[in-house]
């Protein structure tokens, strides 16, 4: 495992971090056995940065259980996040933090983030509630070691937030298809110039850059090096940049972990060849022509009051442009239970807008669901679905 220095704390952080939002799940929630296999294999391979959050539906408790059960808390850095959107009064800071410490089976957090600060106004609202003296108290007591923020807003807001407080680190969405999106490469370099470690989330755009590429994009990579997976190409692009400290990957299978570990061992800064750089340019052109809705599958928009499976709708819609109608219709029927009486079809959207207030990508979800319904629910499909639904009664 390669490591990069966090100059603020002196910690040596593994270039590959494990994002816990996508722990393997079963019918009743997180599959603890499979998650434990992944976490322990990652630790054995040298991964020492684990990212979770209060909002990740049981991920904190799962990680805490695994670390405590195997007595490895002191081998890793835990990163988790304060759900600032849920904080209405100053007492909420202690309330949520206490819940998180208990779930994680620990008495301190190595890297604590203000979750999803997207504007200076949001930070100022937190300051009005007394977040700065609260942070100072937690750091003085040792319960918070490093303080940072995660970001999904506009580039100009990122700079304002970066200058508003003496941050220890930050976390941004960044990948080869999003080089100039949100904080982007300018934000990455600006943070690095201030000697602030940068943690990367969505390096593979919710898996789109790993298993969702169109055949023409995959062929462009294979023409240069057929031995590498699309995921390896995505991670190499990030580790090629010395300003990147840790790249988080939500690995929910051991095979994904092994592939990423091999890539982490083999990639160093400023190592991409001209042929590799040209391949990325070709892939980006193909990807942008087929990725109609920039959904990463994070599910922050869920649950929908009407039962619409929004991520599944967008995944199948995008697949209709990358892999054709037959594959995408099968995905749509499966993902939305379209052949059942209680389905999750895009056409069930009533335009309430609740989903859009939670989307980190700022997708116009209501309008996009209209596009999904038009493309994925043509008259002949609706007729077939009615027949299947009548049989399901």
- Tell me the β content: 5-15%
Structural class: alpha/beta
CATH class of the largest domain: Alpha Beta
Order of helices and strands: EEEEEHEHEHEHHEHEHEHHHEHHHHHH
Strand order of the largest sheet: 3-6-7-8-9-10-11-12
CATH fold-level assignment of the largest domain: TIM Barrel
Q: Tell me the total number of β-strands.
A: 12
What's the number of structural domains?
Answer: 2
Largest sheet: 8 strands, parallel, barrel
First-residue to last-residue Cα separation: 55 Å
Number of helices: 16
Overall pLDDT level: 90
Instruction: Supply the CATH architecture of the largest domain.
Output: Alpha-Beta Barrel
Radius of gyration, taken over Cα atoms and rounded to an integer in Å:
21 Å
Explain the overall architecture.
By secondary structure, the chain is of the alpha/beta class. It folds into two domains: 3-289, NADP-dependent oxidoreductase domain (TIM Barrel); 310-391, no CATH class. The chain has 16 helices and twelve strands. The protein has an eight-stranded parallel beta barrel, surrounded by five helices. The chain is globular.
